[in-house]
Amino acid sequence: MPTTRAHEIRPAARLENVRYAIRDLACYADEVARQGHQILYLNIGDPNQFDFKTPAHMIEAVSQAMRDGKNGYAPSPGIKPALEAIRGEAARKGICSVQDVFVTSGVSETVDLCLTALLNPGEDLLTPSPDYPLYSAVLAKLGIGLNPYSLQEEDGWQPDLDDIKRKITPRTRGIVLINPNNPTGSVSGRAMLETIAELARQHHLVVFADEIYDKLILDEDEPRSFASIAPDVPVVTFGGLSKNYLAPGWRIGWGVVSGELAAVERFKEAIQKLLRARLCANHPEQYAIPAALEGPQDHLIAVRQKLRGRRDLTMRWAHSTPRVHCVAPRGAFYAFPRIDIPEPDEIFVRELLLEKHVMVVHGSGFGQKAGTKHFRIVFLPDEPTLTKAYAAIGDFMAKRYGS
Ligand code: PLP
Q1: What Cα–Cα distance (Å) separates residue 220 from each residue in 95, 197, 216?
Q2: How far is the CA of 108 from the centre of ligand 1 (A)?
Q3: Of 68, 195, 286, 393, whose CB neighbour count within 10 A is largest?
Q4: Mutation choice for ligand 1 from 132, 157, 181, 214, CB with most ligand atoms inside 8 A
């Protein structure tokens, strides 16, 4: 046995700012579970934990691929039928200037590859605030500082255009738009997208259009692909199977590069270089891409119907609960209510979990505006479960803060 003290391995300092609040509460959840309590999970955007099932024809496509021996490495950009299906989907979304498409292990990997392919130290990327924490984690990994722009709560969580204009500097290379949005559930319309496209043109920005929730628009069904509105602007549109197609565990995402070829040519080659370096995305699961995009879409009608009911229930609760103010979500399955409470929202969510066994995520975990307090609700559970969870939250707040 060695007798000297172990030499501590220092992790990279640039990771100090990486946070992923959605999973950070796990240790408290373990404690509650150890005490034998059942937790009501309103914290993770995984539809398969609730009454949503991966469409059977997608499962069949993957199992057939496995039986057919598609278990080796795939081509680095993705298998041909998947790339063709993604091009078809891009055309249906109205994207007419496609220059490249590629498949990744989830949109998480698309984000990682695209940001890595674009940004040098000293440059920056505009990201929404509140954000989806993956973006700031990848930027931290690259040693790139944050340049967050505000989503304005009083304007239905729409991007604050004045703030975007103020934050653009000669070092700004691009902007992230998450539409429909996580964590607020907001949806941006054509006028907003056109204005952002104009800013991108003026300042030579690449637009990362994260449209992973694009089939989960709850109020109307107008397609709003950013790249269709701005065919001349360099855009990477992100999509995947995790949300629209209820298969997050398969880790399948993709990117669609569009814009003028001369503008995006070197950038798309840089992405391809990174795709080759990591070999390939999950192989048999890629066979679900054509099945999903070209097969029956019936599940989406049922999914949106359930989500509408759960969103409306959430809003009825928010309207009738003291200290809670909530912009109605119009897409995805998240709500981001503001709470008037005398303590940090981090303590609110921790105590709520320990006392009522309801798990939500604190707004500070999403880089919310300083001085405000929020929490994020995932309204995927069925209505009886949500009703129970909301009653518990209301009761907790009344007892802890008064009404
Ligand atoms: N982008 C947004 C806005 C998300 O909400 C998520 C997952 O919750 C992702 C990307 C990552 O998705 P994937 O499962 O495809 O990696």
Answers
A1: 20, 23, 10
A2: 6
A3: 286
A4: 132
Q: Measuring CA to CA, how many Å separate 115 from each of 154, 204, 227?
A: 30, 16, 18
177 pairs with which residues across the strands?
209
* pLDDT tens, residue order, the chain (403 aa): 566 678 889 888 888 777 666 666 888 888 898 999 999 999 989 999 999 999 999 999 999 999 999 999 999 999 999 999 999 999 999 999 999 999 999 999 999 999 999 999 999 999 999 999 999 999 999 999 899 999 999 999 999 999 999 999 999 999 999 999 999 999 999 999 999 999 999 999 999 999 999 999 998 766 579 999 999 999 999 999 999 999 999 999 999 999 999 999 999 999 999 999 999 999 999 999 999 999 999 999 999 999 999 999 999 999 999 999 999 999 999 999 999 999 999 999 999 999 999 999 999 888 888 889 999 999 999 999 999 999 999 999 999 998 6
Ligand 1 center–CA 181 separation, angstroms: 11
Ligand 1 binding pocket, CB closer than 6 Å = 45, 106-108, 132, 134, 178, 182, 210, 212, 240, 242, 248, 253
Cα 252 to ligand 1 centroid, rounded to whole Å: 10
Closest protein CA for atom 5 of ligand 1? 182
What number does the ligand 1 atom closest to the CA of 178 have?
3
3-state DSSP: the chain helix, strand, coil percent, rounded to 5? Answer: 45, 15, 40
Cα torsion 204, 137, 189, 305 to 10°: value is 150
CA distance 210 to 202: 21
Residue 253 CA: nearest ligand 1 atom is 15
- Residue (of 115, 83, 117) closest to 102 by Cα position: 83
